[in-house]
Specification:
CATH topology: Growth Hormone, Chain: A
CATH architecture: Up-down Bundle
Radius of gyration: 22 Å
Helix content: over 70%
Strand content: under 5%
Distance between the termini: 36 Å
Number of domains: 1
Number of helices: 17
Length: 454
């Protein structure tokens, strides 16, 4: 009897793993990264920053712009706009994710934010210097759409992959994202650099067309995960309960669980600090290359393409290395390299040094993003159905770190008139994050062994 029961249990567990690790579902999930990473590359990293810096730098006013009657440094204004967008999402997402878990609306919110972000990118087609306010607003809304879509997509990871597969599945998502974004970037690259092939005489048209293409690309390829990902089921225990009240109840429940999980709580603390540096560098790198080194649009796009291609290798390498020495060890090594990268960035003076640094950034960028997501996913209780709520804490932690990182970067630049000083400030965030990662090694994960999870 015991043997029969054991064999039935083992078979049930095996079937569960098989359902979770369905190749078609995982591939469809990864296509969401393919769809939205075009925004991350074209809008936040290459064409938009270059276009924005060029049109907002004039002989009359230099790098100063007027936004609703107030004067800002142009790059500081865009960083402030992103800070506000991320802050709004920090406040909004925990509530929406709780509602998603209790009402079965995870895919609904994922779709909603996707369409909001994509339409905002399409709106950037109309962005010129005389429509600065409109352009900055669309820029901020696009960021909010991206953040919201990513958070709800991330929350599917523990549902579609077993613990032992989550590192590789997360890496696959980022790899899809890098490949998809590079493909669209190359298409945009042709329009920007070879506009004479198409008889284009308006220099602003190619970048504005690129923004429109990002929105269309985002919507089209997002249909793949929308059709294949599991359909949400509402939690019956919340029947008859006010939707916002249930949201706060779910949020409170998850927060109490996290407080009782010392390892997960401390990991979020380490993640908070090193994310200040990682995300801010990713968002500000293009502005630094254009404004400080005067690379020009073509060279800047080439550099970012290098980063994206190398990042694919980085994501795969870090996933493989984590299986040998553990996630926390790999993250600590990568954060240490980030610290050295910041100090190198402070001293670079020419494009060739920037290219070399870009290759290093690409390698460690793909790895740290992918591994951070899968590491967190591993420590979520295996029996929880509140994955959106748990990932809202992860996402809120990351976005709050971006708010602080971007705001610090912007205000230091405005006070010192030197972006290099802002980069050194980011190095301090990495140092604090590394300290917490090293301290984390002394904390034993609850309910699972270190070999299984870290």
């Amino acid at each position: 009897m015991t043997d029969h029961f054991s064999s039935v249990t083992t078979k049930a567990n095996f079937d569960s793993v098989q359902i979770k690790n369905d190749k078609k579902t995982i591939r469809s999930w990864a296509f969401f990264d393919w769809a939205n990473s075009a925004y991350n590359l074209v809008i936040t990293s290459t064409i938009f920053p270059a276009y924005y810096t060029i049109i907002t730098t004039t002989k009359e006013h230099g790098d100063k712009v007027t936004f609703f009657g107030r004067t800002f440094t142009n790059t500081a204004l865009s960083n402030y706009a992103l800070s506000v967008a991320y802050l709004v999402m920090v406040l909004l997402l925990p509530i929406l994710s709780s509602v998603a878990d209790s009402r079965g609306k995870k895919k609904f919110f994922m779709m909603l934010f996707t369409y909001i972000g994509a339409l905002a990118c399409i709106g950037l087609y109309f962005f010129k210097l005389d429509t600065l306010e409109f352009g900055i607003i669309c820029f901020a809304i696009a960021a909010m759409g991206y953040v919201g879509g990513v958070m709800f997509n991330n929350s599917y990871l523990p549902e579609i992959a077993s613990v032992d597969q989550q590192d590789s599945v997360s890496a696959k998502g980022y790899s899809f994202g890098y490949i998809g974004s590079v493909i669209l970037q190359l298409i945009c690259f042709v329009f920007v650099l070879k506009q004479e092939w198409f008889g284009i005489t308006d220099d602003s048209f190619p970048p504005r067309l690129s923004f429109l293409l990002v929105g269309v690309w985002w919507i089209i390829f997002a249909q793949i995960p929308f059709k294949k990902l599991p359909v949400d089921q509402p939690n019956p225990k919340y029947d008859g309960v006010n939707v916002f009240k249930s949201g706060f109840l779910e949020l409170s429940k998850v927060w109490k669980q996290i407080k009782g999980m010392k390892f997960l709580k401390n990991y979020l603390l380490a993640f908070f600090f090193y994310s200040m540096g990682v995300q801010t560098i990713m968002l500000a790198a293009a502005g630094f290359g254009e404004k400080t080194l005067h690379l020009g649009t073509s060279k800047l796009i080439a550099v970012i393409l290098i980063i994206q291609l190398v990042a694919i290798l980085g994501a795969v390498m870090m996933s493989s290395l984590s299986r040998r020495i553990g996630n926390i060890n790999v993250l600590a090594i990568v954060v240490f390299i980030w610290i050295g990268t910041c100090f190198c960035a402070y001293f670079i003076t020419n494009e060739y040094q920037f290219y070399g640094l870009a290759a290093v950034v690409g390698l460690i960028m793909g790895g740290i993003q992918s591994l951070s997501r899968s590491t967190y996913s591993k420590y979520i209780p295996a029996d929880t159905k509140d994955t959106a709520s748990f990932f809202s804490f992860y996402d809120a932690t990351e976005k709050l770190s971006i708010v602080i990182g971007l705001f610090s970067f912007a205000i230091i630049e405005e006070l010192t008139n030197n972006m290099r000083n802002s980069i050194i400030a980011l190095a301090s965030f990495f140092v604090i994050g590394l300290i917490f990662l090293l301290l984390l090694k002394r904390v034993q994960p609850s309910s699972v062994t270190v070999d299984e999870r870290a």
